[in-house]
Write a structure and sequence with these properties.
- This protein is of the alpha+beta class.
- It has helices spanning 4-7, 47-57, 75-81, 94-97, 110-117, 157-167, 190-199, 219-222; strands at residues 20-25, 30-34, 62-67, 85-88, 130-136, 139-144, 173-180, 204-208, 214-218.
- The chain has 2 domains: 4-101, Cytidine Deaminase, domain 2 (3-Layer(aba) Sandwich), CATH 3.40.140; 110-222, Cytidine Deaminase, domain 2 (3-Layer(aba) Sandwich), CATH 3.40.140.10.
- Helix 2 (47-57) crosses helix 6.
- The two termini are 30 Å apart.
- GO terms for molecular function: cytidine deaminase activity; identical protein binding; zinc ion binding.
- Its EC number is 3.5.4.5.
Length: 234
Amino acid sequence: MSWNPLYEQSYVPYSSNKHACVVESKSGKCYAGVRIENISYPLTIPAAQAACAICLSEGEIPAKIYTEDPSSEQLDYWGKEFELEVIETNNPSQDKLEDLFHPSKKDFEVLPRLKTLLDNAVTPNSDFPVSAILFTEDGYFEGVNVEVSAWTHGICAERVAISKAFAAGRTEFTRLEVHTRKGEISSPCGACRQVISELLPYHDIVLHHSDGTQSEHLSLDLLPFSFKSSALKK
């Protein structure tokens, strides 16, 4: 298997710089990440960040990272953070990635599942776990927030779920549901709202609050006057 199928899952409308990588956990499971750009450039999710965060969100510890470009964005940080073995290859293993391309389809009650997912959150700094489930036309992807030593390289639950979906080639989203057990309301942060406004612009966002109530919103309404400049180079 070449990198091309994974590269094609990248969302790179501004740079056309497609990139992907694969993280292998200490238990031998593999997780793919692809580059997901945002019109607000600093919110772009590098492939290495996506793959490592997805691995951590599944309760696994990254051990190796496979890439075609060892100088790719954030790879140095993640390699040092987890003492990863960086393996340069032009032939990622198909069999280890097979399960990644199929979204979950099991029937379940959303709120109980969101509550269970909170236990997977990696929050050594904030102790503020968040869970999210992103529904697509043929299944769903789960996410929790992941914090690491460099606060700026942590990533929210909503974006972990989005990263999983893109790595699996699923971009036809239907709705996003979010839950936190702490705080007055469950609400995507400003950064997530910017990402959501671009990737899920007219979608239902269901927020399950810590007091047992819930509210539903149109994603477009979560961030009035979001950055949509047509002046950017494309």
